[in-house]
Amino acid sequence: MNAKAPAHPLPAHSPNEVDSDTRLDALADLSQRLLASARRRGASQAEVSCSEETGLNVNVRMGEVETVESTRDRGIAVTVYFGTRKGSASTADLREDSLEATVEQACAIARYTEDDPAAGLADAELMASDLREFDSWHPWALDADQAIDLALAAEAAGREVNARIGNSDGASVGSGTSLGVYANSHGFIGRERSTQHSIGCALIAGHGDAMQRDGWYSIALAADELESAVSIGRKAGERAVSRLAPRPVATGHYPVVFSAEIARSLVGHLIGAVSGGALYRKSSFLLDSVGTQLFPDWFSIEERPFLPRGFRSASFDAEGVAVRESALVSGGVLQRYVLGSYSARRLGLTTTGNAGGVHNLHVASNAGDLDSLLAGMGRGLLVTELMGQGVNAITGDYSRGAAGFWIEDGRIAYPVDGITIAGNLKTMFQAIEAVGSDIDPRSHIRTGSILLGRMTVAGGSAEG
Protein backbone atom coordinates (compact mmCIF):
# COMPACT_ATOMS: atom_id res chain seq x y z
CA MET A 1 0.00 0.00 0.00
CA ASN A 2 1.47 3.34 -1.04
CA ALA A 3 1.69 6.10 1.58
CA LYS A 4 -0.04 9.39 0.88
CA ALA A 5 2.07 12.36 -0.15
CA PRO A 6 1.73 15.52 1.99
CA ALA A 7 -1.14 17.74 0.90
CA HIS A 8 1.31 20.67 0.76
CA PRO A 9 4.77 19.14 0.29
CA LEU A 10 7.78 21.15 1.37
CA PRO A 11 9.92 22.16 -1.61
CA ALA A 12 13.11 20.16 -2.09
CA HIS A 13 16.45 21.87 -1.67
CA SER A 14 20.14 21.17 -1.43
CA PRO A 15 22.08 22.06 1.74
CA ASN A 16 23.94 24.88 -0.05
CA GLU A 17 21.03 26.44 -1.98
CA VAL A 18 18.34 27.23 0.53
CA ASP A 19 15.40 29.42 -0.45
CA SER A 20 14.80 30.30 3.18
CA ASP A 21 11.70 32.44 2.66
CA THR A 22 9.96 29.72 0.64
CA ARG A 23 10.79 27.08 3.18
CA LEU A 24 9.72 29.24 6.11
CA ASP A 25 6.41 29.85 4.31
CA ALA A 26 5.99 26.09 3.97
CA LEU A 27 6.78 25.50 7.65
CA ALA A 28 4.34 28.25 8.66
CA ASP A 29 1.62 26.68 6.50
CA LEU A 30 2.32 23.30 8.07
CA SER A 31 2.08 24.77 11.58
CA GLN A 32 -1.37 26.21 10.81
CA ARG A 33 -2.65 22.88 9.50
CA LEU A 34 -1.49 21.14 12.65
CA LEU A 35 -3.09 23.75 14.91
CA ALA A 36 -6.36 23.37 13.01
CA SER A 37 -6.16 19.61 13.44
CA ALA A 38 -5.69 20.05 17.20
CA ARG A 39 -8.74 22.34 17.38
CA ARG A 40 -10.85 19.79 15.51
CA ARG A 41 -9.94 17.25 18.17
CA GLY A 42 -11.15 19.51 20.94
CA ALA A 43 -7.91 21.01 22.25
CA SER A 44 -8.48 24.27 24.10
CA GLN A 45 -4.94 25.46 23.27
CA ALA A 46 -2.11 24.19 21.09
CA GLU A 47 1.39 25.08 19.94
CA VAL A 48 3.61 23.77 17.16
CA SER A 49 7.36 23.99 16.53
CA CYS A 50 8.71 23.14 13.06
CA SER A 51 12.41 23.08 12.26
CA GLU A 52 14.78 22.20 9.45
CA GLU A 53 18.56 22.01 9.67
CA THR A 54 21.27 21.24 7.15
CA GLY A 55 24.96 20.78 7.83
CA LEU A 56 28.34 19.82 6.42
CA ASN A 57 31.07 18.66 8.80
CA VAL A 58 34.51 17.28 8.01
CA ASN A 59 37.27 15.97 10.28
CA VAL A 60 40.89 15.31 9.40
CA ARG A 61 43.75 13.91 11.45
CA MET A 62 47.49 13.63 10.69
CA GLY A 63 46.92 14.83 7.15
CA GLU A 64 44.22 12.26 6.37
CA VAL A 65 40.47 12.65 6.03
CA GLU A 66 38.62 10.85 8.82
CA THR A 67 34.97 11.80 8.29
CA VAL A 68 32.81 13.78 5.89
CA GLU A 69 29.21 14.16 7.03
CA SER A 70 26.33 15.90 5.29
CA THR A 71 23.15 16.18 7.34
CA ARG A 72 19.59 17.25 6.73
CA ASP A 73 17.27 17.05 9.71
CA ARG A 74 13.74 18.18 10.38
CA GLY A 75 11.41 18.00 13.34
CA ILE A 76 7.77 18.71 14.08
CA ALA A 77 6.64 19.00 17.72
CA VAL A 78 2.99 19.39 18.71
CA THR A 79 1.76 20.27 22.20
CA VAL A 80 -1.94 20.40 23.05
CA TYR A 81 -3.84 21.43 26.16
CA PHE A 82 -7.25 20.26 27.26
CA GLY A 83 -7.81 22.77 30.00
CA THR A 84 -4.77 22.25 32.21
CA ARG A 85 -3.95 18.78 30.91
CA LYS A 86 -1.00 18.68 28.52
CA GLY A 87 0.17 16.25 25.86
CA SER A 88 3.12 16.40 23.45
CA ALA A 89 4.24 14.34 20.47
CA SER A 90 6.79 14.78 17.69
CA THR A 91 7.69 13.41 14.28
CA ALA A 92 10.08 13.90 11.38
CA ASP A 93 7.67 12.28 8.90
CA LEU A 94 5.79 14.80 6.75
CA ARG A 95 3.28 12.36 5.29
CA GLU A 96 -0.24 13.53 5.98
CA ASP A 97 -1.27 10.40 7.87
CA SER A 98 1.83 10.63 10.07
CA LEU A 99 1.16 14.28 10.88
CA GLU A 100 -2.45 13.53 11.81
CA ALA A 101 -1.30 10.60 13.95
CA THR A 102 1.12 12.89 15.76
CA VAL A 103 -1.66 15.33 16.67
CA GLU A 104 -3.89 12.45 17.75
CA GLN A 105 -1.11 11.02 19.93
CA ALA A 106 -0.60 14.38 21.65
CA CYS A 107 -4.33 14.65 22.30
CA ALA A 108 -4.52 11.10 23.65
CA ILE A 109 -1.68 11.82 26.06
CA ALA A 110 -3.37 15.01 27.26
CA ARG A 111 -6.67 13.22 27.92
CA TYR A 112 -4.97 10.83 30.33
CA THR A 113 -2.61 13.16 32.17
CA GLU A 114 -3.31 14.87 35.48
CA ASP A 115 -4.43 18.48 35.65
CA ASP A 116 -1.56 20.88 36.21
CA PRO A 117 -2.65 24.43 37.15
CA ALA A 118 0.60 25.85 35.74
CA ALA A 119 0.16 24.26 32.30
CA GLY A 120 -0.89 26.23 29.24
CA LEU A 121 0.36 28.71 26.70
CA ALA A 122 1.94 31.94 27.81
CA ASP A 123 -0.64 34.72 28.14
CA ALA A 124 -1.85 36.07 24.79
CA GLU A 125 -1.05 39.71 25.61
CA LEU A 126 2.63 38.79 26.04
CA MET A 127 3.09 37.55 22.47
CA ALA A 128 5.71 39.38 20.41
CA SER A 129 4.47 41.76 17.73
CA ASP A 130 7.72 43.41 16.64
CA LEU A 131 9.38 40.54 14.73
CA ARG A 132 12.86 41.52 13.55
CA GLU A 133 15.79 40.13 11.58
CA PHE A 134 19.24 40.14 13.19
CA ASP A 135 21.56 39.63 10.21
CA SER A 136 21.92 35.99 11.21
CA TRP A 137 21.45 34.36 7.78
CA HIS A 138 24.75 33.88 5.94
CA PRO A 139 24.86 30.54 4.07
CA TRP A 140 28.37 29.47 3.11
CA ALA A 141 28.83 28.03 -0.40
CA LEU A 142 31.22 25.41 0.95
CA ASP A 143 31.62 21.97 -0.58
CA ALA A 144 33.29 18.95 0.99
CA ASP A 145 36.57 19.39 -0.89
CA GLN A 146 36.89 23.02 0.21
CA ALA A 147 36.09 22.10 3.81
CA ILE A 148 38.71 19.35 3.77
CA ASP A 149 41.31 21.76 2.38
CA LEU A 150 40.60 24.23 5.20
CA ALA A 151 40.84 21.56 7.87
CA LEU A 152 44.09 20.21 6.43
CA ALA A 153 45.52 23.74 6.28
CA ALA A 154 44.67 24.36 9.94
CA GLU A 155 46.26 21.13 11.10
CA ALA A 156 49.37 21.57 8.93
CA ALA A 157 49.90 25.13 10.16
CA GLY A 158 49.66 23.96 13.75
CA ARG A 159 52.01 21.02 13.33
CA GLU A 160 54.61 23.33 11.77
CA VAL A 161 54.68 25.61 14.83
CA ASN A 162 57.17 23.50 16.75
CA ALA A 163 59.03 20.23 16.25
CA ARG A 164 57.70 19.03 19.61
CA ILE A 165 54.20 18.74 18.15
CA GLY A 166 54.26 15.09 17.18
CA ASN A 167 50.59 14.17 17.16
CA SER A 168 47.16 15.59 16.53
CA ASP A 169 43.62 15.19 17.77
CA GLY A 170 42.53 16.52 14.41
CA ALA A 171 41.02 19.55 12.76
CA SER A 172 37.41 20.14 11.78
CA VAL A 173 35.32 22.45 9.64
CA GLY A 174 31.55 22.78 9.96
CA SER A 175 28.81 24.79 8.31
CA GLY A 176 25.09 24.66 8.99
CA THR A 177 21.74 26.35 8.44
CA SER A 178 18.70 26.37 10.70
CA LEU A 179 15.12 27.35 9.92
CA GLY A 180 12.35 27.38 12.50
CA VAL A 181 8.72 28.35 12.95
CA TYR A 182 6.85 28.52 16.23
CA ALA A 183 3.07 29.02 16.17
CA ASN A 184 0.29 28.76 18.73
CA SER A 185 -3.47 29.03 19.03
CA HIS A 186 -3.25 32.66 20.16
CA GLY A 187 -2.61 33.40 16.48
CA PHE A 188 1.11 33.93 16.97
CA ILE A 189 3.48 32.83 14.19
CA GLY A 190 7.20 33.48 14.60
CA ARG A 191 9.91 32.64 12.09
CA GLU A 192 13.64 32.38 12.67
CA ARG A 193 16.59 31.57 10.46
CA SER A 194 20.29 31.41 11.19
CA THR A 195 23.59 30.00 10.02
CA GLN A 196 26.64 28.89 11.96
CA HIS A 197 30.15 28.06 10.79
CA SER A 198 33.26 26.84 12.60
CA ILE A 199 36.89 25.82 12.21
CA GLY A 200 38.80 24.07 15.00
CA CYS A 201 42.09 22.29 15.61
CA ALA A 202 43.52 20.30 18.55
CA LEU A 203 47.17 19.26 18.73
CA ILE A 204 49.40 17.16 20.98
CA ALA A 205 52.89 18.23 21.97
CA GLY A 206 55.57 16.11 23.65
CA HIS A 207 55.90 12.35 23.97
CA GLY A 208 54.84 9.58 26.32
CA ASP A 209 53.79 10.68 29.78
CA ALA A 210 54.92 14.22 29.01
CA MET A 211 52.32 14.80 26.28
CA GLN A 212 50.08 17.87 26.48
CA ARG A 213 46.99 18.62 24.41
CA ASP A 214 45.44 21.97 23.56
CA GLY A 215 43.58 23.59 20.71
CA TRP A 216 41.71 26.56 19.34
CA TYR A 217 38.56 27.18 17.37
CA SER A 218 36.59 29.96 15.73
CA ILE A 219 32.81 30.08 15.37
CA ALA A 220 30.60 32.69 13.71
CA LEU A 221 27.27 33.21 11.98
CA ALA A 222 29.04 34.50 8.86
CA ALA A 223 32.07 32.77 7.34
CA ASP A 224 33.86 36.08 6.76
CA GLU A 225 34.01 36.57 10.53
CA LEU A 226 35.91 33.33 11.15
CA GLU A 227 39.59 33.46 11.99
CA SER A 228 41.68 32.01 9.16
CA ALA A 229 42.39 28.27 9.19
CA VAL A 230 46.12 28.95 9.35
CA SER A 231 45.87 31.29 12.35
CA ILE A 232 43.62 28.80 14.18
CA GLY A 233 46.14 26.02 13.60
CA ARG A 234 49.06 28.15 14.73
CA LYS A 235 47.27 29.22 17.88
CA ALA A 236 46.42 25.59 18.65
CA GLY A 237 50.08 24.65 18.21
CA GLU A 238 51.34 27.49 20.37
CA ARG A 239 48.88 26.64 23.11
CA ALA A 240 49.86 22.95 23.11
CA VAL A 241 53.60 23.72 23.30
CA SER A 242 53.07 26.30 26.07
CA ARG A 243 51.71 23.55 28.32
CA LEU A 244 54.77 21.32 28.15
CA ALA A 245 56.75 20.56 31.32
CA PRO A 246 54.09 21.55 33.86
CA ARG A 247 55.11 21.93 37.50
CA PRO A 248 53.19 21.28 40.72
CA VAL A 249 51.62 24.05 42.75
CA ALA A 250 51.80 24.18 46.51
CA THR A 251 48.39 23.77 48.11
CA GLY A 252 47.13 27.07 49.46
CA HIS A 253 44.81 30.04 49.00
CA TYR A 254 45.61 32.20 45.98
CA PRO A 255 44.11 34.74 43.61
CA VAL A 256 42.76 33.01 40.49
CA VAL A 257 42.11 34.39 37.01
CA PHE A 258 39.64 32.49 34.83
CA SER A 259 40.57 33.11 31.17
CA ALA A 260 37.71 34.51 29.09
CA GLU A 261 36.70 31.22 27.49
CA ILE A 262 36.57 29.61 30.96
CA ALA A 263 35.04 32.59 32.78
CA ARG A 264 31.70 32.18 31.04
CA SER A 265 31.21 28.92 32.96
CA LEU A 266 30.87 31.02 36.14
CA VAL A 267 28.04 32.96 34.51
CA GLY A 268 26.54 29.65 33.41
CA HIS A 269 26.42 28.47 37.03
CA LEU A 270 24.60 31.68 37.97
CA ILE A 271 22.04 31.18 35.17
CA GLY A 272 21.41 27.61 36.23
CA ALA A 273 20.82 28.67 39.83
CA VAL A 274 18.34 31.46 38.97
CA SER A 275 16.41 29.51 36.32
CA GLY A 276 12.80 28.62 37.01
CA GLY A 277 13.12 24.84 37.02
CA ALA A 278 15.81 24.83 39.71
CA LEU A 279 13.87 27.37 41.76
CA TYR A 280 10.46 25.71 41.88
CA ARG A 281 12.11 22.35 42.56
CA LYS A 282 14.07 24.05 45.37
CA SER A 283 17.30 22.66 43.98
CA SER A 284 19.21 25.95 43.83
CA PHE A 285 21.64 27.65 46.19
CA LEU A 286 20.09 30.98 45.16
CA LEU A 287 16.49 30.52 46.34
CA ASP A 288 14.79 33.83 47.25
CA SER A 289 17.77 35.82 45.97
CA VAL A 290 16.14 38.56 43.88
CA GLY A 291 17.15 41.88 45.42
CA THR A 292 20.16 40.29 47.10
CA GLN A 293 23.73 41.56 46.73
CA LEU A 294 25.48 38.58 45.12
CA PHE A 295 28.43 40.40 43.51
CA PRO A 296 30.56 43.50 44.15
CA ASP A 297 28.64 46.74 43.66
CA TRP A 298 30.32 47.53 40.31
CA PHE A 299 29.35 44.21 38.71
CA SER A 300 26.57 43.92 36.12
CA ILE A 301 25.14 41.48 33.57
CA GLU A 302 22.70 42.59 30.87
CA GLU A 303 20.59 40.51 28.53
CA ARG A 304 20.76 41.93 25.00
CA PRO A 305 18.52 39.88 22.70
CA PHE A 306 18.59 42.31 19.75
CA LEU A 307 22.30 42.25 18.86
CA PRO A 308 23.01 42.01 15.10
CA ARG A 309 24.71 38.65 14.47
CA GLY A 310 24.29 37.66 18.10
CA PHE A 311 24.37 33.92 18.76
CA ARG A 312 21.08 34.05 20.64
CA SER A 313 19.42 37.11 19.17
CA ALA A 314 15.62 36.84 18.93
CA SER A 315 12.37 38.78 19.01
CA PHE A 316 10.53 36.08 20.96
CA ASP A 317 11.26 33.16 23.24
CA ALA A 318 10.27 29.51 22.80
CA GLU A 319 6.66 30.36 23.74
CA GLY A 320 6.29 33.39 21.47
CA VAL A 321 6.68 35.86 24.36
CA ALA A 322 8.30 39.16 23.41
CA VAL A 323 11.84 39.40 24.75
CA ARG A 324 13.37 42.61 26.01
CA GLU A 325 16.69 44.11 26.98
CA SER A 326 17.03 44.03 30.72
CA ALA A 327 19.51 43.75 33.56
CA LEU A 328 20.03 40.39 35.20
CA VAL A 329 22.52 41.82 37.70
CA SER A 330 22.91 45.54 38.38
CA GLY A 331 25.09 47.09 41.04
CA GLY A 332 25.95 43.56 42.10
CA VAL A 333 22.28 42.89 42.96
CA LEU A 334 20.27 40.09 41.29
CA GLN A 335 17.40 41.89 39.55
CA ARG A 336 15.25 38.95 38.41
CA TYR A 337 15.07 35.25 37.74
CA VAL A 338 15.17 33.50 34.35
CA LEU A 339 11.65 32.21 33.74
CA GLY A 340 9.30 30.77 31.16
CA SER A 341 5.56 30.83 31.73
CA TYR A 342 5.36 27.40 33.39
CA SER A 343 8.07 28.03 35.98
CA ALA A 344 6.73 31.55 36.54
CA ARG A 345 3.27 30.19 37.39
CA ARG A 346 4.77 27.61 39.72
CA LEU A 347 6.54 30.44 41.53
CA GLY A 348 3.62 32.88 41.45
CA LEU A 349 5.58 35.22 39.16
CA THR A 350 5.47 36.41 35.55
CA THR A 351 7.55 35.01 32.70
CA THR A 352 10.71 36.96 31.89
CA GLY A 353 10.64 35.87 28.23
CA ASN A 354 13.27 33.21 28.80
CA ALA A 355 11.46 30.02 27.82
CA GLY A 356 14.21 28.12 26.05
CA GLY A 357 17.00 29.95 27.89
CA VAL A 358 18.75 33.30 28.03
CA HIS A 359 19.62 35.38 25.02
CA ASN A 360 22.86 37.31 24.61
CA LEU A 361 24.40 38.12 28.00
CA HIS A 362 26.99 40.86 28.40
CA VAL A 363 29.19 41.03 31.50
CA ALA A 364 30.48 44.57 31.96
CA SER A 365 34.26 45.00 32.14
CA ASN A 366 35.98 47.14 34.76
CA ALA A 367 39.59 46.41 33.81
CA GLY A 368 41.98 46.10 30.87
CA ASP A 369 43.05 43.03 28.93
CA LEU A 370 44.31 39.72 30.31
CA ASP A 371 47.88 40.96 30.65
CA SER A 372 46.72 43.84 32.81
CA LEU A 373 44.69 41.47 35.03
CA LEU A 374 47.73 39.26 35.52
CA ALA A 375 49.92 42.27 36.27
CA GLY A 376 47.42 43.45 38.86
CA MET A 377 47.18 40.00 40.42
CA GLY A 378 50.95 39.71 40.81
CA ARG A 379 51.10 36.11 42.02
CA GLY A 380 48.50 33.39 41.58
CA LEU A 381 46.87 31.02 39.12
CA LEU A 382 45.62 31.53 35.55
CA VAL A 383 43.05 28.84 34.71
CA THR A 384 42.72 27.95 31.02
CA GLU A 385 41.03 24.55 31.34
CA LEU A 386 38.51 22.97 33.70
CA MET A 387 37.77 19.26 34.09
CA GLY A 388 34.92 17.34 35.66
CA GLN A 389 31.59 18.55 37.00
CA GLY A 390 32.18 19.15 40.71
CA VAL A 391 29.47 21.78 41.28
CA ASN A 392 26.66 21.18 43.78
CA ALA A 393 23.67 23.15 42.51
CA ILE A 394 21.90 22.98 45.87
CA THR A 395 24.73 24.19 48.12
CA GLY A 396 26.87 26.08 45.60
CA ASP A 397 29.95 24.09 46.59
CA TYR A 398 32.52 24.18 43.79
CA SER A 399 35.45 21.81 43.22
CA ARG A 400 36.91 21.17 39.78
CA GLY A 401 40.08 19.87 38.23
CA ALA A 402 42.04 22.60 36.47
CA ALA A 403 45.07 23.38 34.37
CA GLY A 404 46.72 26.62 33.34
CA PHE A 405 49.71 28.72 34.33
CA TRP A 406 51.37 29.94 37.50
CA ILE A 407 51.83 33.70 37.62
CA GLU A 408 54.79 35.38 39.32
CA ASP A 409 55.43 39.14 39.28
CA GLY A 410 52.40 39.60 37.03
CA ARG A 411 53.68 37.30 34.27
CA ILE A 412 53.31 33.69 33.24
CA ALA A 413 56.07 31.70 34.96
CA TYR A 414 55.30 28.09 34.01
CA PRO A 415 52.42 25.74 33.14
CA VAL A 416 50.58 23.75 35.81
CA ASP A 417 48.13 20.87 35.69
CA GLY A 418 46.70 18.14 37.90
CA ILE A 419 45.35 20.68 40.39
CA THR A 420 41.95 21.29 41.95
CA ILE A 421 40.34 24.66 42.59
CA ALA A 422 37.60 24.86 45.21
CA GLY A 423 35.24 27.27 46.92
CA ASN A 424 31.57 28.10 47.19
CA LEU A 425 29.90 29.97 44.33
CA LYS A 426 28.31 32.55 46.62
CA THR A 427 31.72 33.36 48.10
CA MET A 428 33.34 33.23 44.65
CA PHE A 429 30.84 35.71 43.22
CA GLN A 430 31.57 38.14 46.07
CA ALA A 431 35.33 37.63 45.59
CA ILE A 432 35.33 38.86 41.97
CA GLU A 433 37.78 41.77 41.79
CA ALA A 434 37.93 42.45 38.06
CA VAL A 435 36.41 41.57 34.69
CA GLY A 436 38.76 42.08 31.76
CA SER A 437 38.09 43.73 28.42
CA ASP A 438 39.32 40.65 26.52
CA ILE A 439 35.80 39.48 25.66
CA ASP A 440 35.59 36.05 24.03
CA PRO A 441 33.15 36.50 21.09
CA ARG A 442 32.52 32.77 20.58
CA SER A 443 29.48 32.45 22.84
CA HIS A 444 26.15 34.07 23.69
CA ILE A 445 27.70 34.73 27.13
CA ARG A 446 30.10 37.56 26.42
CA THR A 447 32.65 38.12 29.16
CA GLY A 448 36.31 38.87 29.54
CA SER A 449 38.68 37.13 31.93
CA ILE A 450 37.55 37.20 35.57
CA LEU A 451 39.84 37.70 38.58
CA LEU A 452 38.82 36.21 41.91
CA GLY A 453 40.74 37.48 44.91
CA ARG A 454 40.96 34.14 46.70
CA MET A 455 40.29 30.45 46.06
CA THR A 456 41.59 27.20 47.51
CA VAL A 457 44.07 25.60 45.14
CA ALA A 458 45.01 21.97 45.88
CA GLY A 459 48.34 21.01 44.36
CA GLY A 460 51.11 18.60 45.15
CA SER A 461 52.29 19.88 48.54
CA ALA A 462 51.45 22.26 51.33
CA GLU A 463 52.21 25.92 50.86
CA GLY A 464 55.50 26.72 52.40
Keywords:
2 domains; alpha+beta; PmbA/TldD fold; 464 residues; five-stranded mixed barrel; six-stranded antiparallel sheet; 9 helices
Number of strands: 18
Rg of Cα set:
25 Å
Total number of distinct structural domains: 2
Span between N and C termini?
A: 81 Å
- Relative strand content: 25-35%
Shape annotation: globular
Order of strands in the sheet with most strands: 3-2-1-4-5-6
Counting DSSP H or I runs of 4 or more residues, the number of helices is 9
How much helix, percentage-wise, in residues?
Answer: 10-25%
Structural class: alpha+beta
Q: Which regions have little confidence, pLDDT < 50, spanning 5+ residues?
A: 1-18
Organism: Novilysobacter selenitireducens
Domain Metalloprotease TldD/E N-terminal: 46-110
InterPro entries: Metalloprtase-TldD/E_C, Metalloprtase-TldD/E_cen_dom, Metalloprtase-TldD/E_N, PmbA, TldD/PmbA_N, TldD/PmbA_sf
EC number: 3.4.24.-
Structural topology:
Blueprint: H1 20-40, E1 45-61, E2 64-82, E3 85-91, H2 96-112, H3 144-159, E4 165-184, E5 189-205, E6 212-220, H4 229-242, E7 250-258, H5 260-273, H6 276-280, E8 301-303, E9 326-330, E10 333-334, H7 341-347, E11 361-363, H8 370-377, E12 380-387, E13 397-408, E14 411-424, H9 425-430, E15 432-435, E16 445-446, E17 450-458, E18 461-462
Parallel strand pairs: 7-12, 7-18, 11-16
Antiparallel strand pairs: 1-2, 1-4, 2-3, 4-5, 5-6, 7-17, 8-9, 8-11, 9-10, 12-13, 13-14, 14-17, 15-17
